[in-house]
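Please, structure for the following, as C-alpha cells.
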Amino acid sequence: MSDNSGMDAIQAETAQLLGLLNKYETELLSTAWVEGVIDTDYTECEALPARFEEQHIQTNWISLLTETGRVCRSVVQQTAAPSDTSADASVLERSSAPSGFWTALAESGTQHKHVISLLFYFMYSGQKSDASFEERQAGMLAASVYLDLLAIPGSNAFRVFHPVLYSRALDSFKLLSALTARRGGGARRPSRAAEDELGVEEDEEEVMEPAEAARLLRLLAGLLGDLLLLTERFSLRHGAESLEDTVQTLVEITRADGVRPELTHNAFCCLTSICRPLHGSVTRSVALVLRALIPALLMVGEQPPRALTAGRDLAVRFVGQLVRSAGVLAEPALQTLVQNVCLRVPERAEQRQRGAQAVMRLLRLMPLPLYTQTLRWLRDFARHEKTGHRLFALEVLSQLLAEGLRGSTSDSDTGPGRRARRRSSRRSPTPDSTSESDPEDWEAAQRRESAENAREGGRESRAGGRQSRAGRRESRDGERGSQESRPESQEAGPESQPEGSGGSQEDGERAMTHAFLVRLIFAQCRDPAATVRARALNVLAECTVSADSATRAAVRRLFTAGARRPSAERQEGSGAENEENEEQEDIMAMLRRRAKDSKVMVRKSSLQVIENIMRLNPSCVTPENLQVLLEHCRDPALLARKQCQSSLIGLVTQYPADDGVCEAVVRGLLPQIHDPENKVQERVIQFVDQTILAGIRPFEEGALSRPDEQLPWKLLDLIVKFCFQKYLHTIMQAVFSGQKIKPGVFRALRSHVGTANNAPAWMCLALISRFAPVEQPLFALDYFTEQIQNELMTEEVFALQQSLHVLQFSAARLSPEAATRLQTQLTGLLRAAALPVELLSAAVDTVAMVTLERGGEDGYQQRLEEWCGPLIEDCEDFLSKELLQPGGGQGSLWEDRLLRQIHTLGDLAQLVPQRVNKRCFLMLQNIIYVEKNGRRGASGGLQDPSARLRSVAIATLGKLCLQHEQMAKRVVPALGKILDVTEDPAIKNNVVFTLSDMCVRYATLVDPLMPQVTCCLKDRSLVVRRNTLILLIRLLQEDYLKLKGTFFFRLIQCLLDPEPEIRQLIRFYLTERLLKRQPKVFFQHFVECLFLYNEYEDHESYNKLAQTAREREVFSLKGPEQRPRRMLVYKFMLEHMPDDQRFQMSHKLCQDILGGVVDGKIALSAASVPLLRDTLALLSCDEIKLQSLKTSPEDAEPATDASGMAEVFQAVAKKTLISQVVKKNVIENMVPIIIALKHKLETARSPLLKELMIYLKDLMKDYKNEIQDILVADKQLAKEIEFDMKRLSEAAEGAGDGDGGEGAPPPPATPRPATTPSNRRIQSVLVEAIRSAHRMTAGRPAAAAEDGQPPPEEPPCHNGGGEGGRPAADGSPELAAAAPAPAAAPAGGPERQSPGLGSPTRDLREMLRAISTPQADGAAPNLTFVDRDVSAILRLSPIVRVSSRPPGAPDTPAGGGDGAPSERRKSARRGLVADLAAEAIQEQDERA
C-alpha cells in the first residue's frame, strides 16, 4: 500500500512539474534560435524572440523558476538514490533509462531542448557584467533548475547534460567572493579578483544593497544544495573536465572569506559525495579533491592570515575524514598530496613553515606503513637538486624531531626485543586503520608492500651508488677550490651519511629513528647553497636544545661519541665508502669552518650550534671552539656579533668556573662597548651591570664558595690582567649615567680591600669614583700610607695606583686636615724619588686635584707653581749633578732614582711648562742621542746609558716638546733618526708614542717621519708592531694623517703579519672604517701595488715613490717565493671592491700592464716577468669576476608578491645589462690586447705564454662565440689558439690523472734525458734543427710538391710559444715541448734563419749527427723523443727516414718495391750520421 502511495506522490509531483514547464511556452521559441544556441555549444546566445517576449511580458520569471526548482527538487528527492555498491553498468543503465517524467515531457509537446536553451539564456544574462539584480536572480534560479533536471533519472537518455552548460551553471558561484566582500552594507571593497569575475569597472562600480546581497547569498546556498543533490544521484564519471571543475568550484567556496558555515559544510559534503564509486574510481576522485586542496593547505591566497589558518584547519580535518571514509583507497592519494605539498610550497620562509605544519598534520593521518614510506621519500627529497625543496625538507625534518616520531624505537634498542616487536608490528593492524581485517590478509599486504619497497629500494641504492661515486669525484675537485661549501653527498661526514639507501622494512625502521634524522640534517650543513646550510645549522641548533630526550640523545651521540663513525660501521660499507669516510674531517672542525663562511646566516647558525654543543657537552669547551667565538666578536655582520654575545654570556653562565670561558668573555665581550651598533653596546652594558656589579657581595669568610659568586671577581681579575680598564670605564660610564650609585656598592667593594680581591676591588672603586666620589675616602689615604712603606709587588703597586685615583676623584670629600696630609706626603715622596715609576703620574695628578679642590680655580696656576717649581728645580739639580759631572753614579739603584727624576720632570712640566728651562732639554738629549759611529753620545759622568733610561728620557722629552714648539722642531728629526738606528723594542715603542702625541699638535713636523714610523710595522717585537698599528689607525681616524706615499702599501701589508691579532685589527680597520670613508681606496692603489711589490721601476708613471734601501728591504715582497703573500694582498683588495670597481680594474690591468707590454712601455725582460705573471693570475682569479654575475638564484629566496617579483625582474635586467657591458669591454678592449701580447710573447719565447693561455682559456669559457667572431678573419691564429687550448687541456688532464686516488697505481716513469754536458749540446742542436726546418719549409709548400710529396698538414705552429722556449729543470730545453715557428711568413719575405744554420737538409743532417754521435765515455746519448716531433721529422726530411716503431719491434719491409735496406746501407748511414753529429758538436763548442 505504501509503495502505491509513493508512486501516486511521484506522479503528482511529476504532473505538477510538467504543468510548470508548460507555462514556459517554449514552443514560442523559434527553432532557429534554439539551434543557434545549441550550435554555439552554449557559449553565447542572442536575445529572446520577440514573439516569446511579448507572450511573457507579464510573467514573473523569478516566482516561476523558484516554484519549478522546488517541485523538481521534490521529484528528485522522492526517487531512490543509487547505492555505492551498485556496479558501474547498472548505474549507467539506471541514469540512461527513460523515466516517466521525461516520457511525459515529450508527450506533452514540450521539447526539452527548448527548456534547456531557455535556462541557458537566463544563466547567460545573469552572469553578464552589467546584469541587473533581477537578471542575477533568474540566472541563479535557472542554474538550480538545470541541476535538478540533471538529477532526475533518465536525463542521460535525453542528453540533458552538456559540459559547457554545466560549467556555466557552476560559474554562478563566482559571485560568492564579491558578495561576501560586500556584506556589511558595502563597507568593504571587494577584491580585485572578485571585480574581475564580475566584470565591474573600477570607476563604474555598482553598489549593491545589503538586502540584495543577502538574497543572492540565499539563492547561492540553494544552488549549492542542488549541486549536492546532483552529486548524490548523477554520475560524472564520463565528464572528467566537469568533475574537475566541480571540485575546483567547491574548494573555492570553502576558501571564500566570510562565507556562512552552512555553505562551507555543504561544499565539503559535495566533495565527499564526489569521492563515491558513483563518479568513477574512488582513488582518482580522492586524488582530484586532495590536489585542489593544496593551496588551502599551503595557506596561499589574499585572505587575512586568520582566514588562511582557519581554511587550512578545515582542509586538514576534511582530509582526515575523507581518508577515514575511503580507507585504503585514499592512501596513495594522501601520499601524493604530501609530495605535492612539498613540491609546490612557495619559496618563502613563512610559507615553508606553514607548509611544514600542514605536512605534519597530514602525516598524522597516515597508517604506520604509509608513514614510514613517506619518511623514506622525505629522505630522498632532502637531496633534491632544487634549493627550495631541500629547504622545505629541513623544515619538515625539524618539526618531525620537535613533535616526535610515530612508531620510532630507541637508537640503542637492538637485539631480539626489537626483532620481536618488528614481528608483532607486522601481525597487528595500525591503530589508525578504521576497518577490521583478517591477520593473514594484513600480513599478505605487508609482504606485498615489502616486496615493492625492496624493488624500489634496489633501484634507489644503485642510483645512489652512482651519485655517490660522481659526488666523490666532484668532492676532490671542490676541495681544491676556494669555496669550502660542498654538496652533502660529496662532503657529508660519517655521522651525517644516512645508513642505507634501500627501501626495505629495515630501512623503513631506520628512517624512523631520531639518530637517522639528525644525521640527515647534519649532512645538509655541507650543502652548496648557503640558505640550506644556514637552515640546516639552525635546525641542528634547535635539536641540541630540544625538549625531546630522544633528539637530545641523538645529537649527543653525534657530537660526543667521536669525530668519526666507529670502525665497525666503516667496515660494513663498501671500499669506496670506506675511502670516503677516511677523508672526512672532525665534526667540530666542520662547524668551525662553517663559522668562516661568506654568508652571514651560515656563520650565525654555526656559531649557535657550536655554543649549544659546548653547553651540551663540557668536553667540547676547548680553546679552539672558544677562539671561534672570540674571533667573531669582530665579525662585520651584526647578526654574527650579536650571536657571539649571546653565546659567550650563555657559556659563562653555565660554566662560571671555567677559566677559558671567562677569558673569552673578557677578551671578546668588553671591547664590543665600542661597537658601532647601539644594540651590541646595550647588551655589553647589561651583562656587566647584572653579572659583575650586581654580583659583588660584601666579603665574608667562606662566603665566596660557589662558582657563580666567584665569577664577578674572576672577570675583574682578568680585566686587570689584560689591562681592559678603559673598556670597563666606558661601560660604567654608561651604567651610571643619570643613575645614582647605591651606597651598598661602595660598602661591598670596600669590604674586599686587603683580601684576595684587593686589586680588582680598588680598580672598581677608582672607576666608580669618577662618576660618584666616595663619601669617606679617608680609608684610601690610610691604605696608601700603610702600604707605601712596605716592599711593593706588582699587584700591590697597581692597587696603590688605583687608591691614588680614588683620592684624586674624591678629593672634594677630604677634610682640610686630610687634604693637607695627603699633599704633604705625596710631595715629599716625589721630592725624595721614593715612589715607583708606575705611581708617579697618579701622585702628581692627585696633588694637582687636591690643590684645585682646596682653593678653587682662582689662583690655581700660582698654587701649582708653589709646589711644582721646587720639585722641578730639584729634578734639574739632580740631573745636572749626575749627568754633567765627571764620574757620575753607577748601579741599578742609582739608575732607578734617575728614571724617577726624569719621569717626574715630564709630569710636572705638563702642569707648569714655563718653569722648564733649556738646560733640561739639553740633558735629556744628551741621554738619548746616538752618534754616527753607533756609540751613544754622552759627556760628563754618564757613559753608555741603558735602553730603559733612554726610553724614559724619550717619553719625557716628548712631554716637554708638547709645550715648546721650537724645541719640537729640533727634536722630532732626531727621533726619526733614532728609529732608523735602534733595535731596542722599548726605545722604538716610546719614540712611536712620542711622535704620535706630537703629530696631534705638530702634524707638519711629524709627517716626514711617517716612513720611519711605518717601518715599525715590520719590527720583530709584537708589542712594537701592535702599538704602532693602533697609533697609526687612531691618527688616521682623527684625520691627523693622510694615506699618501707608501703609507697605504705598508699598512695593508699587516695582513701578512704572523700574529692573528694584528691581522684581525688591520682587516677590521680596512673593511669597517677605511672603506666606509674612502670607498675607492683599494681601486686607486691596486695597480701601484703590483708595480711596488714586484719592484718594477722602469715604468714612466708607476712606482715612483721615494724609498730608502732599508725601507725597500723591510717591505720587500719581490721574488717567486713571496708570490703567495702578494696574491693574498691582491685578492683581499679585490674581494672588497664593488662590481663597478672590479670591472674598471680588469680593464685597467689590461690597458696599463698588458697593453703597456704590447706598446713597449713595459719592457719584456726578467724584471717584468713577475709583474706580468701576477697580472695574468689576477685576471684569471675568481675574486676579480663580478659578484652580480657569479651570484646564483640558489641562494636567493624567490619572490611571490608583486613587489618582490618586480625586484627580481629588476635584478635580472641589471645582471643582463652588466653582462652585456662586460662582454663588450672584453671583446673590444681586452681580446685585441691579449692576441697582440700572445704574438709578442711567442716572438720573445717568453715563459709567460702558459699563464697567458690560461687566462685566454678562461675568457674562451665565458666568451667563446664572441672571441671566435674576432678570430674569423685570422684563421691561422684561430687554429693556433685552438691547438694551444687543446695542449693546455691535455696537460691539465695529465696532471689531474697523476693526482689520482691514493689507491691508484703510479703512472709509469718517463725516461728523462741524461744531464751530461754532451747531451745538453745534442738536445740544443736538435731543437734548433727542428725549428729551423719548420721555418724554412713553411714558406715553401710548392717545393715539397715538386718532390712528389703533398704539402704536409701540420698542427698550428708557434714561435717558441708555450713551454718550447722554457729551459728544463736540468738547464736543457725540453724536447717534448719544442714547437716550430708560425707557418705564415711575413709579407716582406721569408723569415730570417737562425745563425749558424743553413738549409733544411743541412739542419736535418746536423740533427742526425747529434743523434748518432757517441759520448766521451762511448755510451749512446740518452735522448727522449715524442712521437709528434719524430713524425714532424719524417714529414720534413726528404733524405732520411726515421722509424717511429716502438723499441724492440722487429724490422719490417717498407712499403713499395725497394724492400728493406741492407745491412751495408744501415752501417754506412750510421757512420755518416756519426760524422755529421761530431762536426755539429765541434761547431757548437767553437761558437761557445
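The first helix runs from residue 2 to 22. The radius of gyration is 47 Å.
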